[in-house]
């Protein structure tokens, strides 16, 4: 995998405002700060997407997301917190290194995330569910 800006931050090649680090994860302030307290939590290993991680890595990543979200709540007292994880360009991923945004939110902050609801009938939902093989 190509070295990304996140790899360079994690390795200390570029400066960042580190929030937390353990054996598998690294959390730092997003340089784009949508709202004060916006943190990115990344897997240290340069996996491109959630689908490229092991189950243990995914668990470690979201344990860190949980810790960071609690710290963001305590430090910034937002009215809400958005947790966003995107995969591949069509899924809105902008850096090809798996990461999660922990974004403190306030009513009227201008942050938007939306998609058109399709509202399929239950029989279609049941057919879609039947295609999944979750283990």
From TrEMBL:
One of its GO terms (biological process) is nucleotide metabolic process. GO terms for molecular function: catalytic activity. Residues 5-112 form the HIT domain. The lineage of its organism: Bacteria, Pseudomonadati, Pseudomonadota, Alphaproteobacteria, Rhodospirillales. It comes from Caenispirillum bisanense. This is Histidine triad (HIT) family protein. It holds the Pfam family HIT. It comes from the Bacteria. A motif (Histidine triad motif) lies at residues 97-101. The active site is at 99 (tele-amp-histidine intermediate). SUPFAM superfamilies: HIT-like. InterPro entries: Histidine_triad_CS, Histidine_triad_HIT, HIT-like, HIT-like_sf.
